[in-house]
């Protein structure tokens, strides 16, 4: 791998001229690849991922054509650091245009702030109009304090915005109760479900649904909010990590903020500017990712599917709720229930319909167990 990191190295390995290698790349016979470092998954992690995905299949489709739920009652939340600037900013200049000069006291300690993002699945009516954009909000973990002394930037007593030094469980709980829930109540559509699942990852500072203070605040009027945890080491099971945060980050850096106040405004503006269609496409991509995870039995060693959603939408073939191959569901049930495998081997000559019924009964049990865990 280390001998194939640039065109010159590849040319040396193949005993070819670099120009010849470049032509092979243009023809598609050699392709560039950025190799990511994946989270390590144990066997228990893989089984939990498969079990969790099976619980997202719509119950009334299990025995015929399995299909994922609409997920309109889910809100995905996650935290992300946003930096004031990048170490290297790529731009294009005109001929003889002066090169911009940027400087910081330390390139290792660039000012940053953590944000909590929350998104749901957008809704569209029969005329293609967006009735709910799915963007609940993006909230900074900051504090506003009065300046202790005068400086060239501001007088004493003026309000300064400072990032929160440490996001503890108390800070996180306060963010959910005081910021997230009111934002959901303001923006949630009137025809939306009243029971809302808030999906988060397994970070240590996160609270569970059994938290006593959360239990006192998770019912607001007709709404009930339920905190759920996604499988461990599974950023590919969340909308924000899948691609939404990257889209916001690319828009935010175009604004080139100069201070913390401008950084917060740039992130919030980028969040609002992102088109709801982009968020809708990410939700569809998530369901296709779940299918790929099932194919590799919970592993993350799979290639991200490229679906051509724009072409499918133009042809009227874009699936809003993605189907799951029935055979794939049965294979995953066998993966979760080894005893079913042994039974299938012993009764290999039995009637095929009876065997399929046993598989589906085991699948129903797996779904019930997953629902209980949620």
Structure overview:
- With 374 residues, the chain is α+β, with helices and mostly antiparallel strands.
- The protein has 3 domains: 1-35, no CATH class; 42-68 and 303-374, no CATH class; 70-274, Nucleotidyltransferase, domain 5, CATH 3.30.420.10.
- Helices cover 40% and strands 15% of the residues.
- It is built from 12 helices and 10 strands.
- The protein has helices at 7-14, 18-26, 43-54, 169-187, 212-217, 239-253, 260-273, 276-295, 309-314, 326-336, 338-346, 352-373; strands at residues 74-83, 112-120, 123-124, 130-132, 135-140, 142-146, 159-163, 195-200, 219-220, 223-229.
- A 6-stranded mixed beta sheet has the order 5-2-1-8-10-9, sandwiched between helices. Strands 3-4 form a two-stranded antiparallel ribbon. A two-stranded antiparallel ribbon has the order 6-7.
- The chain is globular.
- Mean pLDDT is 86; it is low at 341-352.
How is this structure best summarized?
With 374 residues, the chain is an alpha+beta fold. 40% of the residues lie in helices and 15% in strands. The longest helix is centred in the C-terminal third of the chain and has 22 residues, at 352-373.
